């Protein structure tokens, strides 16, 4: 498990898959989301995982990784239940046709159907659909975490971006290709003598932007510290101003020598 709290290595897919199984068949369903789970709710789920995986929950990054994976898995499961609810016609028709993993837990399915019909859920569903419509493009690596892929490929962040948004069939979109070419250009300029040095993460952040503290297009990869990002931006601007001032001074001195 990486410091970014994402599973990596040869067994990362097995861990994610097992968490999905545990969620579907063992997790309490009468919760709005993972944040509504108590530690008493979570403990039996963790114990089921520890029967198959060597997990040290005293390590913050391990516990944090499981929290992220379970949260995502629980959200995905609820979404699949809702999709089944809609395909079954909603209302009583859906209530009489439970989603397969919940056939042996009819009380949970009834609770979910009631939940799907609440005004609060309907509002969130409309907002969620609108937000998904705004996505310019999506990556081509399915459910595999970017961090796990980078661990496998041992590549830099800009190369990883291409790996995730470009396949044999081409780029995910023109915007994705343009972003990649812009980052390559910035990386090339970064290598020129006298250029202001930017890290790969700063280049990605500058081109892709940030959303809720994450660099866009990088999944749960680098999560830049807000204070550090602000300091970095100020330092970058300051360096630009100093470089411009130095260039101006050199130009004046050259003119004086020419005279």
Automatic annotation (TrEMBL):
PANTHER family noted in UniProt: NO APICAL MERISTEM-ASSOCIATED C-TERMINAL DOMAIN-CONTAINING PROTEIN, OS12G0282400 PROTEIN-RELATED
Ranges for region Disordered: 216-244
Sequence ranges of Basic residues compositional bias: 217-226
Biased amino acid composition, Polar residues: 227-238
Lineage top rank: taxon: Eukaryota
Pfam family, one: Transposase_24
InterPro entries with a match to the protein in the record: Probable_transposase_24
Name under which the protein is recorded: Os01g0650700 protein
């Amino acid at each position: 498990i990486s410091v970014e709290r994402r599973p990596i290595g040869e067994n990362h897919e097995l861990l994610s898959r097992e968490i999905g199984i545990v969620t579907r068949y063992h997790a309490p369903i009468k919760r709005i989301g993972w944040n509504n789970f108590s530690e008493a709710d979570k403990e039996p789920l963790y114990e089921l995982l520890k029967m198959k995986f060597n997990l040290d929950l005293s390590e913050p990054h391990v516990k944090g990784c499981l929290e992220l994976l379970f949260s995502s898995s629980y959200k995905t499961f609820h979404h699949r239940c809702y999709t089944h609810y809609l395909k079954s016609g909603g209302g009583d028709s859906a209530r009489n046709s439970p989603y397969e993993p919940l056939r042996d837990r009819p009380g949970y399915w009834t609770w979910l159907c009631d939940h799907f019909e609440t005004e609060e859920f309907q509002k969130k569903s409309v907002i969620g659909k609108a937000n998904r419509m705004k996505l310019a493009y999506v990556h081509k690596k399915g459910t595999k975490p970017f961090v796990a892929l980078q661990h496998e490929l041992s590549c830099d962040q800009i190369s990883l971006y291409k790996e995730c948004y470009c396949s044999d069939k081409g780029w995910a979109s023109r915007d994705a290709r343009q972003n990649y070419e812009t980052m390559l250009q910035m990386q090339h300029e970064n290598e020129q003598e006298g250029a202001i040095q930017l890290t790969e993460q700063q280049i990605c952040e500058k081109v892709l932007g940030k959303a809720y503290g994450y660099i866009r297009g990088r999944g749960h990869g680098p999560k830049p510290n807000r204070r550090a990002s602000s300091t970095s931006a100020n330092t970058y601007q300051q360096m630009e101003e100093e470089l411009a001032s130095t260039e101006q001074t050199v130009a004046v001195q050259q003119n004086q020598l020419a005279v």
